[in-house]
Amino acid sequence: MLSIVNANYKDDFKIVIEFNDNRKGEVDLKDFIFNGKIKPFKKLQDVEKFKKFHVDYTLIWDDNLDLAPEYLYYKAFERDVSLKNKFHKWGYI
Fold it and tell me: pTM score > 0.85 for this model?
């Protein structure tokens, strides 16, 4: 089962994430937060609130806002063609 083992805020709305398969990547969530359709995440438009996440299997913010580790993995490695089948199986492409 995929999970996040470590994550560090980088800048703007970017987080560097290390997954339990030893892959490390950068996720930019700015578009998701500002243009996404999931209203509870709009409160993270304040970068100071965005920075206040913790890791417990995945990224979690106040009010138990979280994102699936598979989605974060996809966002970190979406350009990696070797992962295309995995992303298709998960429903992201």
Answer: yes
**Which residues touch 23 (CB under 8 Å, ≥6 apart)?**
73, 76, 77
Structure confidence by residue, pLDDT tens digits, 48-89: 999 999 999 999 998 789 999 999 999 999 999 999 999 999
Domain ranges of the chain: 4-90
Strands of the sheet with 58-61, listed across from one edge: 54-56, 58-61, 65-66
pLDDT for 31: 96
Fold of 4-90: NE0471 N-terminal domain-like (3.30.2020)
**DSSP code per residue over 6-37:** EEEEEETTEEEEEETTS-EEEEE-HHHHHH-S
Cα–Cα distance, 32 to 51 (Å, whole number): 15
| Averaged pLDDT, 1-7 | 97
Assess contact for 73 and 67: CB atoms under 8 A. no
